[in-house]
Amino acid sequence: MENKGFGENFTWGCATASYQIEGAAREDGKGPSIWDMMCRWEGKIFNRDTGDTACDHYHRYAEDVGIMRDLGLGAYRFSISWPRVLPEGTGRVNEKGLAFYDRLVDALLEGGVTPYATLFHWDYPYELFCRGGWLNSDSPLWFAEYADVIVDRLGDRVKHWMTMNEPQCFLGFGHVTGTHAPGLKLDWAEYLRATHHALLAHGRAAQAIRVRSGDTAMIGWAPVGVVRMPASDSAESVELARRAMFAMEKKDFWVNSWFMDPVFLGKYPEDGLKAFGSAAPDVRAGDMDIISTPVDFLGLNIYNGQTIESNGSGGWRAVEKAPGHALTNFHWPVTPGCLYWGPKFLHERYGKPIVITENGLSSTDWVHTDGQVHDPSRIDFLRRYLRELRRAKNDGVDVRGYFQWSLLDNFEWAEGYKHRFGLVHIDYGTFKRTPKDSATWYKEVIASNGTAL
Ligand code: GCO
User: Fold this and answer.
1) Cα separation of 251 and 272, whole Å?
2) Is 95 a catalytic residue?
3) Whose CA is nearest to atom 13 of ligand 1?
4) pLDDT tens digits, 106-159
5) 88 an active-site residue?
6) Which of 204, 228, 378, 405 has the largest count of CB atoms under 10 Å?
């Protein structure tokens, strides 16, 4: 196949999130978040790690932007800490918190790196959690107020926005399994209620951004969901995987359609409504208009996929993996085809330009005796995945950008610092940054616009 790279205007970036890298958890007037709360709880986080200091990015952002410039990044996806800016979640604005993001955005622009800002990547204000959090029917308004404060301040320079990151995770892990903050184990009906409010919050924030920035803003969000892949290229097999990717037949917070159909099609999927019956949320007149406020792109966080085959009776089942199948340090399977099938199926259904907002490999890198960090597995992983994304692009899927997760090793939520996803190694004692071999490799990929893959 001819190697056409990724075409004109393709955006190459890296992603991070505030709580995972910033540190400075109690500095300059920042209010507590639910992750500050959960990190205090016994037995919740691997090794009792916390995000108190994380990568100390709050103080070292200039050095980090310097690394981005060295890499030749076209764009950087970061998130804003809601309680750093609004310590109580609503009302009082913390000027020092806002000023940090001002400095960051200015440094990025000065370095020729386009800022892609995510409003909410899970560090929810503790004070709002105490008022019921996402269960409170005012929570979409709280989020809209926050969005307005941010866009008012940064909207003159930031043009690319994501409202929220992975609602499936902060609702599913945070409100059903209890493994992520705020650690709740709600009944399915309450979970669906919280989800409905989060969807309304997304819509209201999209409106707030549009009101302030008009058509100059590129608005999206960054959900995650299960990607299903066909066992063969036959039309039948592809159709089965497509169906499996969107079917909402049981209580499963990973299914794409429950989150994406409302946003892009203005309704909950029929099969889900049928399966959930009286647990389904109360949808008031006008809710779906808010939720489906037009946005410009669909961000996708994709790490792996599941190959599907027929179960012989009209349904499907997952194909069992061969013994010894490649796994990441997270024990997630290495399945490069997900960067082909995921964007393809989601683009077909929703018709929106796609940006891969996260993709990467967790491993246990350390600094070798030669002072370097050699991570050949990450290079191989990214190469395989990016080749599949290139195939999707060449097959006509409207893919506009790719953000590797992550620029820096960082705090991996309940897993603490166990996993290293970075192109840059962090020594959490000294905060020394050591670019890994994969950083040098990614720089070449970017410079060649993907033809070097
Ligand atoms: C998520 C988040 C990131 C993670 C990354 C690796 O998917 O959980 O968006 O914050 O760090 O995906 O798990």
Assistant:
1) 9
2) no
3) 412
4) 999 999 999 999 999 999 999 999 999 999 999 999 999 999 999 999 999 999
5) no
6) 378
